[in-house]
Structures are given as C-alpha cells and as structure tokens.
Q: What sequence folds into this?
C-alpha cells in the first residue's frame, strides 16, 4: 500500500480517493505498508483512531482545460463559483437566507454584542468589504483584524463576542493561532473556508463552506468573491429577526441572485483591458488606486493583486486622503485607477477625479454603465472608463474587483511573468 503526505488535499486528487486528516499533536508512523497514528502529548493514549474520509474532488476541476493558465481559468469560473456559494442558501421567492452550518448556534450568534472578523491577505480584504453591511444590518460594533497583529496584541475577547475566521485554505497559520486564542477566551467562532476538512473548519463551532472548488493559482481570485458573498449571507442570516431591516434585506437578496450574470457582463471587458494594458499600462511601474466606502476594500484587493502578480508598486488610497502629496505624484502621470460606481460617496469621488484631470492626470475610471459624467473628458482622451453593471452598494465591490483581476493578469502576461507561480510566494506552488 502506498501513502502520500500533503498539506493540501487538492494536490492528491490524481493519486488517491481517500484521505486521513491529522490533528494537532498527532504523529503519523508509516512502516511496512501500515499507518499508525500516535499522540505526542504525555499521558494520552498511545494509539489513536482517525476516520478515513472520501476525497470529493473532481480531477477535471484541477486542470486548466482550454485556458492558458489557472489564474485565467479561475477568473472566468467566478460566474459559476458565485452561484455555488449561494446554491440552496439564498431563496429569492421567500427573501430568506438559510445557513444550515450555523443553525445549531442560532441563539448565541444573534445575541452577539460584538463581531470580530479575523483573516490574512485577500481574506482580510473580503472582511473589510463586508464590514459595513454587518454594521448596518446587525447594529453592533464590528472589528476587522489581521490575524498576526490580533495575536501579537493579545486582544480583549469576551464570551458574548462572535469571531469569524476567513481563510481560503483553512490552514492559514496566523488565522489558526488567532482561532486557538479565541477558543481559550470562550468566544463563539465561525469558519468561512473553502476546504471542508481543514483545521479552521474542524476547530470552529460552526461555519459556512464557500463551495469554490480547488484554486490552483497562487493569486486569490474566485475565493475572494465567494468569501465576500458568504460574509454578506451571514450578515443577512444573523439579522433576520430585525424587523426594521426587512426591506434592506430583500433588496440585497434580490441583487445577489443576479450577481453571477453580471459577472459575465464584466468579463466582456477583457478585450478593452488587453488593449489598455498593451498601449497605456505595461510601461509603468507605479499605480495608484482610489476608493471610498465599500470600494476601499476593492482598491486594497486590486493593489495587492498588482503587486503579487504584475510586480509593480501599487498603492490604495481613500479618495478624501487625496491631499497635495498624492496630487503631486499624480502630476507625474502614474496610472490612477478610481472606483466611481454609484453609491453615497459618488459626488465626493467625482470631485477627486476632477482634481486629477485638472492636474493633467489621466485616470482610469471604473464606473457603472450609462455613467455620462466624464463623457467629454473621455472624448478628449483625458480618461478611460471601464463600465460595469450596477447593483446594490454592498455587492458592487464583487463586480468592481474583476477588472482589477484582469488588469493584473494581462499586465503580467505582457511582461512575460508566470502568473500561476509568482516569485517569492509564501504559499505552496500549484501542480502545473
């Protein structure tokens, strides 16, 4: 009998059909075709039993198919993965969200006095994107914490806190350390992960599986949008007993149902983005991204992707922080990408963009279809617009981040960079 060892079950899909998950302090001893599991803790039983589980991964899902690389494949899979995370959970006819993985903890979750979302990297950005809707629907304080910093500070955690841990793999070391800390403080914990057998999914009290499927590319693309939707669904579910929020919840639930088709519309921008990267962007090594409100998280995620995949310096800035220092840089004509889709902050964002144009900047504006405010500037060649469908404000970031994924991808391709295996990555390399 052969045994394979891996930190990621997806890498084993082509070799095995059954897996055994080791837990903390387990020691696996393989000898002469046999597996024995022991515990390293003093006083524990010498031999342990761990359940053999079926590995439910389709080999076709971890192949590139007709795409050139995994990142491109996974960007295009977002039409389907956003459906998967909502399938069986969002009911547009009754305007309800059903999350079976949380039902047993309903009472404890709805009496939360504070919600803390803890994550790292792109998962941290998805938490930032969802924070405003949690605050609006739940009417309780909501904190978003970087997992490493959270543990370093020994944050105050109380028994009536609800801590949400978000991770693509479910094995992020810093996030697991934060989870262990919160468990010791007796807080209620929720896991939002893609891998059902992962450490975070097993150690949290309850959770939501994002059903994203394997993500072989190093860059987080489809997991980001699936996490975003999963967090919005949790906010909708936890606020179901608030009568004052009924109409707002209906609006969001109806908008959720058409997000997959709207993503398909956004992906139609790819030819324009390829041309934009080829003619205007590939010669630059500094980018500025502007956003406010829900779109600041989009700016953070977009800047992160450009650094990680395209190897360019990119900085995300709140639009009202566009002071003289940033405007002085803008006059040197680095590409500026501004999120100007319709929401409560649209007038102020428009004012900032006008200041950039006055200083001879040439911003790239992500706006809604039919937005005519910069039509004259567009005809003069002062701006470039990337038009995306309009949706409810708390979901607009799902659509807005996809042009940035495509820009990062095509900038890397134009520079002959391997997008599936960026240099100096701290994550495990995909099986390419």
A:
């Amino acid at each position: 009998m052969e045994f394979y060892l891996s930190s990621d079950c997806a890498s084993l899909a082509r070799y095995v059909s059954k897996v055994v998950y080791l837990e903390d302090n387990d020691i696996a001893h393989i000898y002469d075709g046999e597996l024995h599991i022991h515990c390293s803790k003093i006083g524990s039983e010498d031999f342990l039993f761990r359940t053999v589980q079926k590995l439910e991964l389709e080999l076709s899902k971890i192949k590139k198919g007709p795409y050139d690389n995994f990142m491109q494949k996974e960007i295009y899979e977002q039409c389907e993965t956003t459906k998967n995370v909502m399938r069986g959970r969002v009911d547009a006819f009754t305007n309800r969200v059903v999350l079976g993985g949380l039902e047993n903890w309903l009472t404890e979750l709805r009496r939360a006095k504070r919600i803390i979302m803890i994550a790292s990297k792109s998962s941290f950005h998805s938490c930032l994107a969802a924070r405003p809707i949690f605050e609006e629907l739940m009417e309780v304080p909501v904190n978003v914490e970087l997992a490493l910093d959270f543990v370093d500070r020994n944050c105050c955690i109380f028994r009536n806190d609800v801590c949400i841990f978000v991770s693509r793999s479910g094995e992020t070391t810093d996030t697991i350390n934060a989870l262990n800390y919160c468990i010791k403080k007796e807080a209620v914990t929720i896991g939002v992960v893609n891998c059902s057998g992962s450490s975070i999914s097993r150690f949290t009290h309850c959770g939501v599986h994002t059903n994203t499927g394997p993500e072989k590319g190093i860059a987080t693309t489809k997991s980001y949008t699936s996490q975003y939707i999963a967090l919005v669904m949790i906010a909708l579910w936890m606020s179901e007993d608030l009568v004052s929020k009924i109409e707002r919840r209906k609006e969001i639930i109806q908008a959720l149902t058409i997000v997959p088709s709207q993503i398909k519309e956004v992906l139609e921008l790819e030819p324009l983005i390829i041309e934009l990267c080829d003619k205007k962007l590939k010669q630059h090594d500094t980018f500025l991204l502007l956003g406010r409100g829900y779109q600041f998280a989009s700016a953070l995620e977009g800047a992160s992707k450009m650094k990680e995949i395209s190897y360019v310096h990119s900085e995300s800035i709140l639009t009202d922080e566009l002071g003289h220092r940033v405007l002085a840089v803008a006059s040197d004509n680095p590409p500026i990408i501004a999120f100007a889709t319709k929401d409560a902050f649209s007038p102020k964002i428009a004012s900032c963009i006008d200041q950039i144009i006055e200083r001879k900047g040439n911003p790239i504006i992500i706006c809604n279809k039919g937005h005519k405010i910069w039509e004259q500037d567009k005809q003069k060649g002062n701006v470039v617009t990337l038009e995306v469908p309009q949706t409810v404000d708390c979901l607009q970031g799902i659509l807005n981040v996809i042009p940035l994924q495509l820009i990062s991808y095509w900038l890397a391709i134009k520079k002959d960079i391997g997008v599936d295996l960026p240099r100096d990555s701290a994550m495990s390399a995909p099986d390419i």
Q: What stands out?
A: The chain is about 40% helix and 20% strand.
